Amino acid sequence: MPAARAIREVAGLSPRDLGPGILEATEPVVLRGLVASWPMVAAARESPGAADAYLRRWYRDATVTAMLGTPEIEGRFFYNEDLSGFNFAPVRVRIDKVLDELARYRDTDKAPAIYVGSTTIDTALPGFRAENDVDLGGRDALASIWIGNRTRIAAHYDLPDNLACIAAGRRRFTLFPPQQVGNLYIGPLDFTPAGQAISLVDFLQPDLERFPRFAQAMEHALSADLEPGDALFIPSMWWHHIQALDAFNVLVNYWWRRSPEYMDTPTNALMHALMTVRDLPPEQRQAWQELFRHYVFEADDSTSAHIPEAARRILGPLDGDAVRGIRAQLLKRMNR
After folding, report:
1. Phi, psi (5° rounding) for residue 42?
2. What pLDDT score was predicted for residue 261?
3. What is the CATH code of the structural domain delimited by 5-256?
4. FRET pair for 329, CA 20 to 30 Å: which of 16, 21, 175, 196?
5. 121 Cβ partners below 8 Å, 6+ apart?
6. Are 48 and 40 in contact, with CB atoms under 8 Å apart?
7. 3-state SS, residue 260
8. What is the residue-wise DSSP string for 41-92?
């Protein structure tokens, strides 16, 4: 099976130097040393204990959702064998208790898997971003923190663009362009471990008899190992598998969309199309494919130019009020 190619790298940038060339890129970019000046990174480079102590400075009795798995899952948060459930348990717990458990098992070879994912920093650790932050040029980004030990997060995509900053521990990222969805063997769309559909392939032990096209996906794979202080820009919709390599890991990430806030997630359109289009007779499905091509995927100024501008309605430019009206119509139709 082919090895992943290295992700393009840029060095020498500071958290104040990011511009459209990075933040609007269509392929991933490793940013070596981008957040090396963060006090959190300095603490992590000193020791896991120092990093732990630094995080506790900002703790204010917040609780988070932690994912807990037995040592037998080897850090891979996933489904159970028949995909009827999961191999971990979510619990609500205080952050300091999570840090206590991570410290307890830090020197244990066969530790339980502990993972706190996608937690809003300003809620969980108020004040942390005053010393550890990135200037995204006015983008309305959601800043989150991820804390855990040696874990593996299955390949998935996110709708927003993503800047992932390594604050403690090392992480290995393996990325695939959106076109590889058919070679990644994606699991259920409506029953997922953490909200996003995931690849069913175990990247450390890929079963090529069960998932033969994964070898083709690897021909397009990009990979990088990141150290504390490094960052990775992941464009919207790129599949990414993340492996935390150390017993104490902290990642800070920023998500932002390049579309107006009033736009719904396209996932809703996909789910609705599965209900209404997928199982049509082939000739009808092909007709709808042509309609989608005309009105959505290849739409431009000429699509509705023959209609008077004031009469174009949904075919004209949309704003928040128009979208709210369309949404109300759809809900009314769906609830009949």
Report:
1. -60, -40
2. 85
3. 2.60.120.650
4. 196
5. 128, 129, 143, 144, 145, 252
6. no
7. coil
8. HHHHHH-HHHHHHHHHTT--S-EEEEEEE-GGGTTEE-B-TTSSSBSSEEEE
In angstroms, rounded to a whole number, what is the distance separating the alpha carbons of residues 26 and 29? 9
- Report residue 19 CA to chain centroid gap: 21
Q: Which amino acid is at 160?
A: P
Helix (H, G, I), strand (E, B) or coil at 335: coil
Backbone angles phi, psi at 198, to 5 degrees: -130, 160
pLDDT (tens digit, 9 = 90+) per residue, 261-308? Answer: 888 889 999 999 999 999 999 999 999 999 999 999 999 999 999 999
Question: What is the C-alpha separation between 230 and 7, in angstroms, rounded?
Answer: 13
Residue 248 · residue 51 · CB < 8 Å: yes
- Could you tell me the pLDDT band of residue 330, with boundaries at 50, 70 and 90? confident
Nearest to 33 by CA among 168, 171, 165: 165
Say if residues 237 and 279 touch (Cβ distance below 8 Å): no
Among 37, 30, 45, 5, smallest CA distance to 231 is for: 30
Q: Where in the chain do CATH 2.60.120.650 domains reside?
A: 5-256
Are 68 and 105 in contact by the 8 Å Cβ rule? The answer is: no
Pick the closest to residue 168 from 102, 77, 111, 233 (CA basis): 102
Q: Where are the alpha helices (DSSP H) in 195-302?
A: 214-218, 266-276, 282-292
**Cα–Cα distance for residue pair 319/70, rounded to 1 Å:** 48
Side chain identity, residue 300: D
Residues listed for the chain: 336
**Tokens coding 196:** 């996003």
User: CA-to-CA distance for 175 and 222, rounded, in angstroms?
Assistant: 5
